[in-house]
Amino acid sequence: MPGHPTIGSGYAAITAGLASPREGQLSQECGAGVLALRTEGRKIYVRSPQPKIAELKNVTSAFGIPLAPPAHLLKVDVGPVWLVGEMSDAGALAALKPDMTALAEWTQSLAATGVTVFAPSGERDCAFHVRSFAPGAGVLEDPVCGSGNISVGAYLRHFGREQSAYVTRQGMQLGRDGRVHMRLEREAIWLGGEAVVCVEGTLAA
After folding, report:
1. 1.10.730.10, 3.40.50.150, 2.40.50.100, 3.10.310.10: which CATH number matches 3-194?
2. pLDDT value, residue 14
3. 3-state DSSP call for residue 42?
4. pTM for this one?
């Protein structure tokens, strides 16, 4: 389930007057089915499909990406399929330079879209830094990845470390500095963010 087009198209529909939230709620149909959206001020949150999770055993690294002990690696399916692992700190995460050819071959062998890794940020205004690599899908690194962040939320919940609400940063290594707002509820994971209008136009017959 991609976050950018879901939140962006929802914002566009609301801004253009094509849709109006009812008590802050909206529904959107896409390839993953009918998704629930809700608005909170300038932010739009989308409810993730229920993640399908498989734990990969005896993994000490995500194909050359060192994982923090005890080196868990999960395969999380939310439409896109991410291999998710945690690193020890944000500095090590920022310094990553994966072998993209080898990473592409490895993820494809596991029928995965790519690898998403995260680490505690050490910052006051966000909980984690996140990086998502999908060379096998033609994206060396996604500057801000909705499905990757949902998969991190699924990882945290799987190991009993969920927080009711937190913010992640992603994209700094690509000259971007995205903020993703996450909500982890008992039965749902919500991904939130803001959108802005960049281009406006009309179509004439």
Report:
1. 3.10.310.10
2. 66
3. coil
4. 0.88
